[in-house]
Amino acid sequence: MPTDPAVLLDERQAAYLAGLSPFTLRNMRQAGRGPRHVQIGRRIRYRRLDVEVWIESHIAA
């Protein structure tokens, strides 16, 4: 998996990084939750940095 924070991940890669199934990540996106995403045509991509920030924001103290 790419490590550059600006690289765009597909749904499967982003879900793996977040510890979710692609189905769960898709449902979260459709409900307006989850990490920020980019839509390019019909394709959905996630910046690695956005996924990592989203994960950090959900760490319990």
Question: Can you give a write-up of this model?
Answer:
By secondary structure, the protein is of the alpha+beta class. The chain has one domain. Helices cover 44% and strands 16% of the residues. The chain is built from three helices and three strands; from the N terminus they run E-H-H-E-E-H. The chain has helices at residues 11-18, 22-30, 48-57; strands at 8-9, 38-40, 43-47. Strands 1-3-2 form a three-stranded antiparallel β-sheet. A hairpin with a 2-residue loop joins strand 2 and strand 3 (43-47). Helix 1 (11-18) packs across helix 2. The N and C termini lie far apart (28 Å).
Oligomer: single chain
Strand order of the largest sheet: 1-3-2
Q: In what range is the share of β-strand residues?
A: 15-25%
Give the domain tally: 1
Computed Rg: 11 Å
Proportion of helical residues: 40-55%
SSE order, one letter for each helix or strand: EHHEEH
Number of distinct beta strands: 3
Gap between N and C termini: 28 Å
Please outline the major beta sheet: 3 strands, antiparallel
State the helix count.
3
Overall mean pLDDT: 93
Instruction: Provide the low-confidence segments as ranges.
Output: none
Coarse shape: globular
Class from secondary-structure proportions: alpha+beta
